[in-house]
Structure prediction request, 382 residues.
Amino acid sequence: MKRPILVALCVAILLFTSCGQENKSSAKAADPAPRVEVAKVVTQKLAITVHLPGEIDPYEVVAIFPKVTGFVKSIEVDRGSQVRSGQVIIRLEAPELVSQRAEAQSKLQAAEAQLAAAQAKVASDESTYQHLKAAAATPGVVAGNDLFISEKAAEADRAQLKAQQENVGAARQALQAITETEAYLQVRAPFDGFVTERNVHPGALVGPAGASGGALPMVRIETLSRLRVVVPVPETYAAGVPEGTSVNFSVPAFPGRVFTGKIARIAHSLDVKTRTMPVELEAANSKGELSPGTFSDVLWPVRRTDATMFVPATSVMSTLERVFVVRIRDGKAEWVDVKTGATVDKLIEVFGDLHEGDMVARRGTDELRPGTTVSAQQGQAK
Prediction:
């Protein structure tokens, strides 16, 4: 009795196990492809504003060094003084220049005296030659050798006169050079502006840059009524904004205030170290509110002349090796390498082998391997 019961029990267990495996296989075969939410690739012209750091510089700035070595006799300005173009701001004294000018004047007078003597000798010898020449018209009155000697003497005198004239010219130029050098003892402002630095006082020894007393400039003058706002623009944003475009900026000293400048100068060349292009805005500062050296927050307009492609920012996947989006085409996943650009709201600009209307996974992930069969769930880029 027990043996038939055991046999029946084993048969029942085998049948149950076989049915379970068949059910699992059937369920596994019936599993659908993974569903992936997708978004369309859209194209549009980029027109956004981004925040870029800038620095305010004076429109003109110059460090004033003396052109000659001397002592400061007087200085008429100090830090913060306003100056006008051509205004005498520092007076120097150099006693050796006085003696050099006196020596040059003496040499000029000596050269002029020698010139006068040469002119008199030329006149005398020329007169003698002309008389002998006239007398020689009568045969036998004047020996031919005497006439020849008189002629050559006159020629030598004329050569000497020319040399003396050149000596006088050289002496006059030497005196003029010293006189012009003396003019450097009066230091004048090269343009309208403000003195922002002063390093000397009366009695100080000063000289040209690199010479004795020339380690620091005497004063520094800056133009503050016009300013340059220097903006290092990343290469991604450097195209499509022409000169003359008005750009707003703000500074920490005036929270909530917005200032405006115009794009005046574009470098048209990138700094290879920072991959940025220096651009200068020109801003009026008639009230003197803005100060050079201040950092600014520039609202830089980013424009594209041609339409570019955009996908949801979440669609872009970055790994150590590549940046890509997952395109869904014919129910299969594909990896498409892209480069990213500007971000507009929740969309990001991409450049790569994509076309308008392509479907990409809204959430980029490397779990969707290329060739994976997926079920696309329609969606729209937001």
User: Anything to note?
Assistant: Residues 95-183 form one domain.
